[in-house]
Amino acid sequence: MPLVHTIPAADCPPDVRRVLRGRPLYALGNASLLSLPIVGVSGAREASPEGIAWARHIGSEAAFHGFAVATGYARGVDRAALAGALEAGGAGIAVLPEGMDHFAVVPELKHAVDLESNFLAISMFDVYDSWQTWRALERNALVVALSQVLFAVEPRERGGTRDAALKAARLGRPLYVVLPHAPLPRARTVNTADELRRALQWAAARRRSLL
After folding, report:
1. What is the pLDDT of residues 102-139, one digit of tens each?
2. What domains sit in the chain, N to C, each tagged with a CATH number?
3. Which residue of 16, 36, 189, 204 could cross-link 68, Cys pair, CB 3.0 to 4.6 Å?
4. Half-sphere exposure in the Cβ direction for 34 (13 Å, CA)
């Protein structure tokens, strides 16, 4: 079983450093996953069956295109996207809204998670910090900062998914929405599997052009 270790803020990319504000990242699992291109996924805890299916499909397609998938590790869309990525042979990053002492691999992911290879849990909070709404919102900022592109599944007029999407727009991250319940600024809607595939192909090409 890997041990929790710290990653200094100074060793993180600039956008991540701005979120951390000098705090370290606490990490459990394969920290080398942070060097992969990353797709962020945010979505409703009480998602519809269609939303859950889309989340799994986003995860699996992201893995196929060489991306790790980062989510806030909440039930519903977040964990479905991680399952899709892991089951497709990809990697998952759980960005926690609380301290690492509260982390456990949830039952629906145990069949696919290998902390030595394909999974990483990270937290910007002290080890024993408990869940608070403001921590969940700060966690969203870290998901966005880590990601090259964000997919928001079933965003509503308010809530964590909308918060993550607005943070992505402010940071200039490409933003895609699936099954929107309310409009989002600077977002493109994904309605079909082909549109999802093209979005990920574009994101992969854009990253290569920036290297």
Report:
1. 999 999 999 999 999 999 999 999 999 999 999 999 99
2. 5-210 (3.40.50.450)
3. 36
4. 21
